[in-house]
Amino acid sequence: MSEPRQSPDARGIEEEAAEWLIKRRDCEEWSEADQAALDVWLAQSWAHSTAFWRLEAVWGRADRLDALRQQEAPRGFAQMRRRVLPILIRAAAGVAALAVVGVPASMMLLQPELKATYTAPLGGRQTITLRDGSQIELNTNTVVRVAETSGERKVWLDKGEAYFTVKHDASRPFVVIAANGRITDLGTKFFVRRDANRLEVALVEGSAQFDENLGRKTARSALLSPGDVVVATASSLSVTKQNGRVLKDKLGWRHGVLIFDNTPLVEVAAEFNRYNRTKLVVEGDAAAETGIGGTFPANDVAAFTRVAQGVLGLKVKNNGTDFVISQ
Amino acid sequence: MAETPETDRGMASSLGPGPATSEVKAWFVREVLPLEPLLIRFFRRSGRTDVEDLRQDVYMRVCDAAMEQIPHPAKPFVLAVARNLLIDRVRREHIVSIEAVENLDALNIATDDPGPDQNLMAREELRRLQLALDKLPRRLRAPVVMRKIDGLSRREIAQRLGVSEKTVEKQLTQGVRALADILYGESTDIGSKS
Q1: Are B53 and A61 inside 8 Å of each other by CB?
Q2: In chain A, what residues touch B22 (CB-CB under 8 Å)?
Q3: pTM summary value
Q4: Interstrand relation of A153-165 and A174-178 (parallel, antiparallel or unpaired)
Q5: Which helix (H) or strand (E) holds A59?
Q6: Helix pair angle (A301-310, A265-275), 10° resolution
Q7: In this complex, is the C-beta atom of A15 within 8 Å of any C-beta atom belonging to chain B?
Q8: Which of A262, B5, B76, B161 has most Cβ atoms within 10 angstroms of its Cβ?
Q9: Complete edge-to-edge strand list for the sheet that includes strand A315-318
């Protein structure tokens, strides 16, 4: 090449950035020392950080490719069939009988595109766009299954949390099933969060119907308007009105952040622990009740502990696997 | 939080949470990176072969400026930086090619079409990723597919391919770079209908 000033620099830096990225994202061993070394490298130059960010963005985009993982039988399908099929059949009663008998086979073999399982790993997020344009954003550690038929769109939230933006279609109801709850959209944006013993549904826009399924009967139901938050536990069901800011804070994860407003440290820790392998452990009641406010990257526990230490004056001990916070 | 002036940027040290840096990063990923096809095209049409180098310089300059204040909207700013950079280079090399520099405006207009709606974009995104995957050399494609579609670990990929984990790591390293070049550099049809 007769290039007057072909700098080897950019390519060399990019190679280094790629090595860092793959080591961090795709290799099993990644220590605190590695992270510190990467931080130093990134801070050395904009050339380093922009090269890294660029590749990181591409590699993150490539995570979407897992939407193509369909040929593989959805994990836990047998179990799902036992648990969900009765509901499905019941739900489909009003739909063509064909849909009912055809479901199991078509899900797996005949029309695999009708049925898909999507997951977001611990600390990850994923946005799914259905063929009708409706979107589902998965938060950390989340599994949903989606079945689209000509008469209905149905999503099972097996675990985790998801934000739904539904294209309303009166002839094809959009139904979300999570634990004992069933949400039927009437043109809507809402999120559903499923924890071990608790289900939370919050309506951001539009309207939706919430039904609680206990056994074969719909136990309770509510027509939700924007700002309504349903919290269902084994023993209780409540609907409260929250202002827009509270809902927005709860949805910080869509942008990769956790937003707290005078939230007790123990709850803050529980939130971070949904996103990270390195856990936050809070010791002592006084520390547990310390109120935390602010916006933090969900995937950066270390950054949070630095704030806890530097700003709040709490003690932070890193025992290798966890951060232990105490007063 | 103490700054570290010995680096080439006014970025908080790695120990600082550096909200400013994270904002710059978010802005960079969201608004600057999508302009890369345009930048690459601009530099190529100007007859440059040191495209990666120029691209890197643009990124460094815009992030440096963004540490002061994040430019909104990003596009005219980034393009102005690119244009100035090219003028600098051209001057330094004593090659007069004003014509090439002016082409930027034409390119700019061509990409000002309102983008497709979000849903189309999401579907389009998957299609683009698939196409990019298809363009990867076979040697790199297999490990990337196993990692991203099948969700296998480095160890599992190594076992399936019968190579060492180190080799898989190297292939993924090359894979992400190739993917970036395909997605950003060559996808010149994106965002432009001309």
Answers
A1: no
A2: 297
A3: 0.45
A4: parallel
A5: helix A46-62
A6: 160
A7: yes
A8: B161
A9: A279-283, A322-326, A315-318
